[in-house]
Amino acid sequence: MITDYAKVLQVLTGNDVHFVIIGGVAANLHGSARATFDLDLVYSRERGNLAKLVKALAPFRPYLRGAPPGLPFKFDEPTVKNGLNFTLDTALGDLDLLGEVVGGGNYEQLTPHTVEIEAFGLRCKCITLERLIQLKRAAGRPKDLESIAELQLLLEERGKAEEA
User: Fold this and answer.
1) Cβ distance 119 to 138 under 8 Å?
2) Whether 65 contacts 85, CB under 8 Å
């Protein structure tokens, strides 16, 4: 299933969920041409935000990606509170909800390194290009390391444009 990024972001922003876009979609929003198939979000773990997150996503049947069918998984406030990072299949596609990320920390630690960006007609917090590069380096996965060269080039091009 192709992830409906616009719908996921619409559902979350419409429910006033606090999150930061990271990963491949953030790279795309900064100009990357690399394909991505899921949406990676770092969410605020504040209690009120957890309630809004669960309320917003519950209708889309979040389930642990790759888990066998029938596993007793319930996407509710206690589960999210007691967990941290969730890779989910939903009726809207693949969604990675991250309480914290290697090299970047949690929502509160990432917020100073965000820009307000228009994504699919919505205003959202997106990780800065500089911090995205740092996160990808810290993650160290082959696919992340492969994308750094393109992201560095985008950063350099942005710097040249700002100088002109």
Assistant:
1) no
2) no
Strand 19-22 with 39-43, pairing: antiparallel
Q: Residue 147: what are its φ and ψ, rounded to 5°?
A: -80, -15
Confidence at residue 41, expressed as pLDDT on a 0 to 100 scale? 98
Strand partners, 42: 20, 98
Q: Measure Cα distances from 77 to 37, 41, 57 in Å.
A: 26, 17, 11
Which tokens go with 163?
């100088």
| DSSP 8-state assignment for residue 48 | H
> Model-level pTM?
0.95
What is residue 162's predicted lDDT score, i.e. its pLDDT? 85
Q: Which of 69, 59, 63, 139 is nearest to 95 (CA)?
A: 63
CA 25 to chain CA centroid, nearest Å:
7
What's the rounded Cα separation, in Å, for the pair 26 and 22?
Answer: 5
57 close to 75: Cβ distance less than 8 angstroms: yes
Give the residue ranges of the chain where pLDDT is below 50.
none
Cβ proximity of 150 and 34 under 8 Å: yes
What's the rounded Cα separation, in Å, for the pair 131 and 89? Answer: 27
